[in-house]
Amino acid sequence: MKKWFAVIGDPIEHSKSPEMHNTWFEEMNIDATYIPIHVKPEQLEEAVSSLKLLGANGWNVTIPHKETIIPFLDELDELAEKMGAVNTVVRTEQGKLKGYNTDGKGFVHSLEEAIGNQHREKQVLIVGAGGAARGIAFALKQYGYKNISIANRTIGKAEAIINELEIGSAINLLQAEQTLDSFEIIIQATSAGLANGDFQLPFSLEKLQPEAIVADIVYNPLKTYFLNSAEKLGARTVNGLGMFVHQGAIAFEHWLKQYPNTNSMIKRLTERLEGE
Ligand code: NDP
Fold this sequence. Notes:
Elements: E1 3-9, H1 17-27, E2 32-38, H2 44-53, E3 58-61, E4 75-76, H3 78-83, E5 88-91, E6 97-100, H4 103-115, E7 123-127, H5 131-142, E8 147-151, H6 155-165, E9 169-171, H7 173-178, E10 185-188, E11 213-216, H8 225-232, E12 236-238, H9 241-256, H10 262-275
Parallel strand pairs: 1-2, 1-3, 4-6, 7-8, 7-10, 8-9, 10-11, 11-12
Antiparallel strand pairs: 3-5, 5-6
The protein binds NADPH dihydro-nicotinamide-adenine-dinucleotide phosphate (NDP).
NADPH dihydro-nicotinamide-adenine-dinucleotide phosphate binds next to helix 5 and helix 9.
């Protein structure tokens, strides 16, 4: 029987997930389809019941439902439970709804695809302590990264993650700016660059080491102001599209037990974003 999948969110029309998953189904000869569904916060419970009733095999969850969907699910994977957020739902063979979070792992897959997996001892700085930063911090720890600091405008949010992780330290943005030369991998995980459409840095990169690796998880624009500035200072950069594609690929694997081709998808979506 044809399988079907969806992404629910508000707004949803700009999501690249339907194109990504439908392309993979076609490439891999899988008889399935993936549709975007606009679900407002007050419709979430009804939407989950309807997806279940109508036999969806699984779905992705995006802003603003990643946390609020949890009470409507039957089980959570360990990482999703720790993060308190779900971006992928699988309908199990027993008909239960199980929530996963593939964002953080997607980031680590993307980072290691770009730089290899030999950097796990390095000093890592995550800038930001929102949902995405939290997922990245937990996934980095799960993959064996040992030195993780988190800088955030609201320091209490960085402290909360560090306390749960039980490694690294929480600092404010000024401290991050002043000690930037002690970090070897820097991950921009705030939405600051998107605020009001003006691409400001959350802090100055003056002390960046030229041999640092700098990643930004924002992928539209592909080359953010943060990455551009880091590149000008000689750093190696990783954009946020790989994270998006790999979080989708990990979700796809949860649903269909196969890992799709991420390289051709990154190439395809890079062309699409460059053309926008
Ligand atoms: P949240 O709203 O949960 O967190 C936002 C973060 O940005 C907080 O740390 C917040 O700091 C910080 N921030 C916002 N504005 C400013 C500012 N002007 N100066 C300094 N810090 C600021 O968002 P998410 O974590 O869900 O998402 C963050 C970004 O990551 C978004 O742009 C999103 O599009 C992108 N993303 C990319 C993904 C991908 O697949 N590539 C996946 C998920 C997200 P404070 O705590 O002080 O408010």
